[in-house]
Specification:
This protein is α+β, with helices and mostly antiparallel strands and about 375 residues long. The chain has twelve helices and ten strands. The chain has three domains: about 110 residues, Butyryl-Coa Dehydrogenase, subunit A, domain 1, CATH 1.10.540; about 110 residues, Butyryl-CoA Dehydrogenase, subunit A, domain 2, CATH 2.40.110.10; about 150 residues, Up-down Bundle (Butyryl-CoA Dehydrogenase, subunit A, domain 3). α1 runs parallel beside α4, α8 packs antiparallel against α11 and α10 runs antiparallel to α11. The two termini are about 15 Å apart.
Length: about 375
């Protein structure tokens, strides 16, 4: 067992940290206030090799593992998770193709992502189907050699900038999860309309919209796997991406803790820095121990999938723990800042707003607990080590 990063991993970490400090952090407040999509930052990140890191070398990518992706996600997340989400959304959309795409599909959809800056979006959530994916209403009806899509997706990250969508739709509504199929859909296809950019509480740099599909024709060649494979493919993608989300949450928590430490060292009450008071020092200690635990959980979940081992339980544990940690650390940082923490003139209020979505997207913290509990109930006790 070895917790040391390899030289290559250390270089990736340093590259991501330098980029985050130089390009992301200085523009974080601007994008939070304006909601402008950070295309210029993404362009620089793409040129630096910090986007689409998991695309295999065979298809023009760097072929990095999920663990390397976690190193990048934490560093960018420490600077701005809104900008980080705009960068990382491609990984979620690409994961189903990496997991289940044919060689031809990988060449057509993944290789172009390595040739110029492009975006993609993962389209599963619907107005009445968030946690309950089995309740999706979007349908795909076979017509000749094509499928015709009808329905609406909601809260889709990168919807307004995506070149293509990964779409989950029901090809047989009577079969529940087993009647769902997965498609890659050109965002410029006839019949697609986008909603307005959502005005969210936090992560305002991220472009989140509704997408409506009205008689959108998709070639059967753009179906991933076969009919009925869609739900399985959609869920397997999360095993690759939830460790990254956990790592981004760790980055946010790390930034909140650092702000809290600096403020607590400079703010005096009763003749000494508030960091010397046990009430504050214990809050800082809890931040540190939980951040360390969250990081190790995300690394373990990433390591498992990189080794070809199942990590569904570990990815859920990492995502839930890191999300809850980010929220608690951000709240405690605001508390340590006191009245200043509630002011937009200070950095921790943004971190608190940004943190909340980690407990919601890519599966709520409650859904992660459901996944964990099902694993406990289905696996032999000896396997849960």
């Amino acid at each position: 067992m070895d917790f040391l990063l390899s030289e290559e991993q250390s270089q990736i970490q340093r590259l991501a940290r330098d980029f985050a400090e130089r390009e992301v952090a200085p523009k974080s407040a601007y994008h939070d206030q304006t909601g402008e999509f950070p295309r210029d930052i993404c362009e620089k990140a793409w040129q630096a090799g910090l986007m689409n890191t998991h695309i295999p070398e065979e298809f023009g990518g760097a072929g990095l593992g999920v663990l390397e992706g976690c190193l990048v996600a934490e560093e960018i997340g420490a600077a701005c998770t809104g900008i980080g989400t705009a960068m990382e959304a491609n990984n979620l959309a690409e994961a189903p193709i990496i997991v289940a795409g044919s060689k031809n599909q990988k060449e057509r959809f993944l290789t172009p992502m390595t040739e110029s800056l492009k975006f993609a979006a993962y389209c599963v959530t619907e107005p009445q189907a968030g946690s309950d994916v089995s309740n999706i209403k979007t349908t795909a009806r076979k017509v000749g050699d094509d499928y015709v899509l009808n329905g609406q997706k909601m809260w889709i990250t990168n919807a307004g900038v995506a070149d293509w969508f990964y779409v989950l739709a029901a090809t047989d509504s009577n079969l529940g999860n087993k009647g769902m199929s997965a498609f890659i859909v050109d965002s410029k296809a006839d019949g697609i309309s986008l909603g307005k950019k959502e005005k969210n509480m936090g992560q305002c740099a991220s472009d989140t919209r509704a997408i409506t599909f009205e008689d959108v024709r998709v070639s059967a060649a753009d179906m991933l796997g076969k009919e009925g494979d869609g739900f399985k493919i959609s869920m397997s993608a999360f095993d690759h991406t939830r460790p990254l989300v956990a790592a981004a949450a760790v980055g946010l928590a790390r930034a909140a803790m650092q702000h809290a430490i600096e403020y607590a060292s400079q703010r005096y009450t009763f003749g000494q820095p508030i960091a010397n008071h046990q009430a504050i020092s214990f809050m800082l200690a809890d931040m540190d121990k939980n951040i360390e635990a969250a990081r190790l959980l995300s690394w373990k979940a990433a390591w498992l999938i990189d080794k070809g081992l199942r990590n569904t339980r570990e990815a859920a544990i990492a995502k839930a723990f890191a999300a809850d940690t980010a929220m608690q650390v951000a709240v405690d940082a605001v508390q340590i800042f006191g009245g200043y923490g509630y002011s937009k003139e200070y950095p921790v209020e943004k971190l608190m707003r940004d943190a909340k979505i980690f407990q919601i997207y890519e599966g709520t913290s409650q859904i992660q607990r459901l996944i964990i509990s099902r694993q406990l109930n289905s696996a032999p006790a000896k396997a849960r080590v």
